[in-house]
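Regression test attached.
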Amino acid sequence: MGAFDTPERPRILSGPTLLLVCLVLLFCIFGIRLWYLQIYKNDFYTSRAQENRTRQSTMFSPRGIIRDRGGVLLAENTPAYALALVREDCPDIPRTLDQVSRWTGQPRDELQKVFEIGRKRVKHFDEQVIVPNIPFELVALVEAHRQEWPGLTIAVRPKRSYTYGATLAHVLGYVARANEEELNNDPDLQLGDDVGKQGVELVLERRLRGTKGLEEFEVDASGRVLSSRVVTQPVMGEDLTLSLSLPLQEVATKALEGRTGSVVVLDADTGEILAQVSLPSYDPNEFVVGISHAKWKELLEDPEHPLQNRPVQSAYPPGSVFKLVLGGLALESGAVKPSTTVFCSGSYQLGKRVFRCWNKGGHGKTDFRKSLRESCDVYYYQLGERLGVNAISDYATRCGFGVKTGVELPHERSGNMPTAEWKLKRFGEKWQGGETLNFSIGQGYTQTTPLQVARFVAALVNGGRLLRPTLLLTETPDVVGELPMKAATRKLILDAMVATVEEERGTARLLRREGIRIGGKTGTAQVVKLMDKYEKKKTQEIPYKYRDHAWLAGFAEKDGRRYVAVAMVEHGGHGGSDAGPVVGAVFDAIFGVQQAQ
Amino acid sequence: MFDRRLVFHINWGLVALTAILFLIGVGNLYSASALRVASGIELDGYFNKQLLWGGAGLLVMAGIVLIDYRHFKAVSWPFFFLSLLLLLGVAVAGKTIYGAKRWLDLGFFNLQPTELTKIAVLILGARLMARMDGRLGWVNLGKVLLVGLVPAILVVKQPDLGSALNILLILGGMILFKGITAGVFKVLVVVLPVMLPFGWFFLHDYQKQRILTFLDPGNDPLGAGYHIIQSQIAIGSGGFWGKGFLQGTQSQLRFLPEKHTDFAFAVFGEEWGFFGAMILLILFCAFLYQVYIVSMEAKDDFGSYLAAGVFFYFFWQILINMGMVLGIMPVVGIPLPFISYGGSASVVNFCMIGVVLNVAMRRFVFKKA
């Protein structure tokens, strides 16, 4: 080994030392590296390996279906096809979106926007819906070209379908694609999910919506599925049976057709809503598939506000219907006896102002029963003046006016029962004596919803129980309060209401039906005050928007079954003649009189 | 011809280590051959073939051990030229597999002349340097380098960068072992690093890509970076004790590429963990240490240089392959001795061990008094 014997050997790595150094380095470098990968970073790489071999996919759960009380399907799920993209499998996303744009005719930049929003929320190996609800021809076309466009798939998702469309639009509401805000507020929602936007679909969303499941697949490197297991089972949404009766709803809708307004039909003893009509209406199915911008604008700008659910979302002056409340207060407070008479000359003077009765000729001597039957204004002007605004307001509130009923419908309005303090606060003006008189006959600042009126009448009929109206079948009614009236008072009021239907000069005579005890109270709510120039004209001669609102609140009783129906026709003119037939048609349908007539 | 007493001088430690490493390799190949499919587990026959090749290698090794290594000197030049001829033959009439011309079809099997070349260069290099006195000056260095450069260029053309590099590295290691003069050393220390970037222009695009990918694997996770990333995931997810034999998900579910050959060590690391990988590393070091001992105890320079060449032959392969699998070196197609599947490579590995055993067992025969 001559190389190592050289005396002037400089310090250069060579010979045996070189080999030993190499050996030690080899051991140290790889020993440390192995420690780093396998011990120090073990958790990181273990989860990476796990991610490699497992894929998860969502198992969709169907939304609960909705039936009417007779078992008729009102809202169901039908399969719908959506064009979806799996990013992981798609080699060229821009080009694929180009093709989707060509197929569907949707603008490319809009698709890009949908894609960008979605990619934050959908995992790279999950189906991301790009175009929902595509027609079947497009499904066939895409399927035929599937090989050329890896990553594009047809996703089958249940689609909500409302068989009776506009007839039940305001009750059922509708579902539509969850928006950004809803997605942010609800972690259970995924992009492309439908969520209740209106009506029962919105209010009972939690019960109707199921819980999605999760399925996990073990896959190999090429994505082949080797095994699968269900991590969490999907839970179906709850099926609901509404208290609503589809045939009655259809009758009520037909009776009101062509006009703007509401019909509410309650079972007086349970508070169940049998019909809830708001006209004009819209087709909720259009929202499910994604309503067009033009159509949406049209609905929003329609002066008749078809999207508004009038029975709970519109508040109007109740007009003479309010006399039922005032009459109750008068008797309860002892302000009048049933036999106390007031002389109606056709008008009443307060200070310098003259308040007219609707009957210019006057009702003459008027007792309690006659005051309701013939809806004498003067009688109530005098009462109101004696009772005062705050007492009336307080009493009406206890009767359920000016407060939300708590029905399972969204955006309910509470209406308004004015007080002197309220006016001062609201307008900065003192309450005028004359305003109390207006209040007494349900005009002015008084605002009630048709559902509040129906609930009040139901309480009169059912023994004084103020119920929470409900759209669901209930075994035990939800009693939220007691009507502040003794049984005797209620009987007097109900008798007067029956007289309104049964007797000569009653304002609701056209409700009369053989064999059924029917009572009613009409109301005409002024839209504009003191429109002298229209005063003497007939309804048809007055411009539509100045015409009065027409109310009719009625009840019908036969064989122990008691129902309340309230019809409210916007700008309908007169309660008895305009709203009356609607209520009549409802009672006919309930008691099957139609055939007899 | 064969002295019976020589049997007692056989380095049994080296033989035992070789046997253990080879068997570990076969066992690991069995696992690397297992693929999970929906219906269960499917086996490729790699481990069977590896056993066959190992048997063949063992025969060749025995043959090499029988002939006194000093006779190698006589055939070193003819052997060298034969291997060059075969390399030229490949260039002209080679068989193309995976876009590379590396094989000569001999009818009953495909010969890879590159493997023969490694042995030829090693023997000729040892012979030349044994005749040279003292450290290598410029002239001697040039002579020795030529022995490596000529075949290396032919191999690069195939293209087989890994093997060309391997040939040059073996020779380079031997040169350093022999020693170079201070003057040469000083110049090389300055010039080599400067020359390195120029080598870039001689690389193929895919080779450049590999180096770039090594520097930043996340840049192209599904393309060139895939190998590096998946290999580290396999190793890293093994943890301390590993996932157990046949339990490696990365390898069985095909996430790990080239798991029979270049990345076989990743399969091992995944299934046997830090514990197993360290044992394998220690076995390799013990194995190299045995070769080192042989080099030390050889009775002449030629034997010493032969053993040193074999040392570097294994050392570089272990370094480059493990470095690649562990993600600290670029992807170069160099297998891990005994662990990676490869017919020719197995036979050559056994040949090399044969050479070392040969040197070891004849260390006393002509010992100077």
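Expected vs. actual: identical. The longest helix of chain A spans residues 15-40.
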